[in-house]
Amino acid sequence: MSDEVKQFIDQIANGDNAGAGDAFKDALRAKVGSSLDNHRKEIASSLFNGIEAEAHSDPKPEVADVGTFNQDGSVSTGKDGQAEIDLSQDGTADTMVGVDVNAGEQNS
Question: Which domain covers residue 8, as residue numbers?
């Protein structure tokens, strides 16, 4: 027997009907709460049983041929798969792509 039920019986035996009402409500809350907890545990333990995990993504497409991007945005395929990219802007030795190696020097 739970403590709430004992308090309810003691309150009735003492003639305290208001206290017995409160003790009854407490006993009922404890009983309903315990039952809800048990049902939550049952549902949680059986929630994902028998469910297979799905694949994360579709398979990747196969690459048909290796290609190189041209400056105009088109793609050209190479014979040996090697990229032929010219990274110099104007072909001079003093510049790299996006970097001026003579920055801060006076021109003569």
Answer: 3-46
